[in-house]
Amino acid sequence: MSGTVVAVSSNGEYSFTKPNRESVTLLAGLGVEGDVHAGVTVKHRSRVAQDPTRPNLRQVHLIHEELFGDLGERGFTVAPGQLGENVTTRGIDLLALPTGALLRIGADAVVEVTGLRNPCLQIDRFQDGLLKQVVGRDEAGNVVRKAGIMGVVREGGVIRPGDAIEVELPQAPHRPLERV
Fold it and tell me: Is this model's pTM higher than 0.85 or not?
């Protein structure tokens, strides 16, 4: 399984969107260099309020570009970085990856997938009604989250648009992604 980096984004200040960059540097055990969410312990405000000592399982946020096409068909215009992701991908079904999958990005970086992004109400402040498009329910009534995945940096490196992404699955049995 392989794909491509479409865009990379980071922001040193708390903001819903993240500007696109020519490159970002992933730092092992921390996240995206200079990004407000980088760190060993949780950095997302809601998580810090609950317990600031918890490990940061949300160091890197990845979204599949294909989601933007789906949203466009429903009347929403979303571009890379606008949903707060650090890495926009193409060609990989991120939501179908198991917990613990490794994403080898570019020449050196490795991100371990930790779980699903749990989108918040800020998405509706960005575009009214968008939250219902990225969080829904399946036929059985189970919550389905479509706003990307989260990961931790296992090996650092510089990543850029156009870089290849190779997926390495963990040993079976695979654990499906849960919200982190």
Answer: yes
